[in-house]
Amino acid sequence: MRRKQHSQAAIAKVASPKPSLAFVDAVALIVGIVIGAGIFETPALVAANVSSNAALMLTWLVGGAISLVGALCYAELATAYPHVGGNYYYLKRSFGQRVAFLFAWARMTVVQTGSIALLAFVFGDYASRILGLGTFSASVYAAGAIALFTTLNIFGLQQGKRTQNLLTVATVLGLLLIVIIGIAFATPTSIPATESTNSGGWGLAMLFVLLSYGGWNEAAYISAEIQNRQRNIVRSLLWSIGIITVIYFLVNLAYLKGLGLEAMGQSQAVAADLMQQALGERGAIIISLLIVIASLGSLNATIFTGARSNYALGQDFPRLSFLKSSGSRSSPTGAMLVQGAIAIVLVVLGTLTRRGFETMVDYTAPVFWFFFLLTGISLLVLRMREPDVQRPFQVPLYPLTPLLFCVVCAYLFYSSLAYTGIGAIASILVVGLGIPLWQWHQSN
């Protein structure tokens, strides 16, 4: 009994913001993070690696099912250990402060900031198609968007979530428009037959699908800010993934109906090809506007959640205490400013390589999936180490469900190393810099 009281008291003792997010707000955040630029780019890559229409549609359903498995694992962690630091806090309780510090360092310098820069580049690329600003138009748009949405979120939680709700609704409505136009008006493209578009098979196709589903785990970082968290964390994860799976399935059905599998696999811009075929040049403009909106929605949500683990880092390490400064508002101002500055530096890096989007994918993927794997393992560790901690939600079919989640994460970690370039090496080196920083902290 003493052990249980001590564990629960330790969890309750951590500082966390006032619960301000309703169920609908949490769903909007998760849907907004996941449904971004990926659904406009990865379907062509998936189609190039499957052999039939049925296999294409099955991959997207399997992707939703795997995401649901991960969400169930996160639901247990988030309800048992609600904390502003999310994964950071789970890793600290499981593996100690050193691993947690390296995760927070990696998230601040690689994972979250790289994702912010990636989404900003997508916004910049498509905004430039609508209104060009010169040679470095995409980079100017990207840096400007990061600065704008960082500022919006610094103004406070209410401003950030209202903006996010609006952008998420606009994105979902736009995708539904693609579904209607693709199924009702477009006719499959007739193109010359090729030997095969199947270059990597089912495994590579699932890699792209699961990358498109990535982001639902961000609910862990707002778990301490959700109202009625014991009920709404689980509900928000399940509803969000259900909505995302249905939308992804219907959008790919529209691509398949409007273009056909062969044309999808050979397309460089599958959504633009579909809309141009159905509506002409107007369709290309419409899809550019849609992708701009989707990218901004994901960018805003990623900035919103990203600063939360940096805030937790500032709480635990006195030399980084500037990260937890909040001023007179509920938003972690210090963490927001640092995050925005690093993301803009990465925009500069992407500009120098002239492969902004691809460079950021290479840069973020290996580190992300490595720590995702450790988080899955932490569920198993905490179940054994802290059996008396109250768990309002317990993952079903334990331990098979978390073990399956860990296997998937391990596969994606391997794939991200196998299919990425120099950006992966750069990210590993940046994470490695966290080791001497940890030693410097320990020396005092």
UniProtKB/TrEMBL annotation:
Transmembrane feature ranges: 21-40, 60-78, 99-124, 130-154, 166-187, 199-216, 237-256, 284-304, 334-353, 365-383, 395-414, 420-438
InterPro entries: AA/rel_permease1, AminoAcid_Transporter
Membrane topology: Multi-pass membrane protein
Domain of life of the source: Bacteria
Subcellular location field: Membrane
GO cellular component, one term: membrane
Keywords, in A-Z order: Membrane, Transmembrane, Transmembrane helix
Gene Ontology MF terms in the entry: L-amino acid transmembrane transporter activity
Record-given protein name: Amino acid/polyamine/organocation transporter, APC superfamily
The organism of origin for this protein: Chroococcidiopsis thermalis (strain PCC 7203)
Upper classification of the organism: Bacteria, Bacillati, Cyanobacteriota, Cyanophyceae, Chroococcidiopsidales
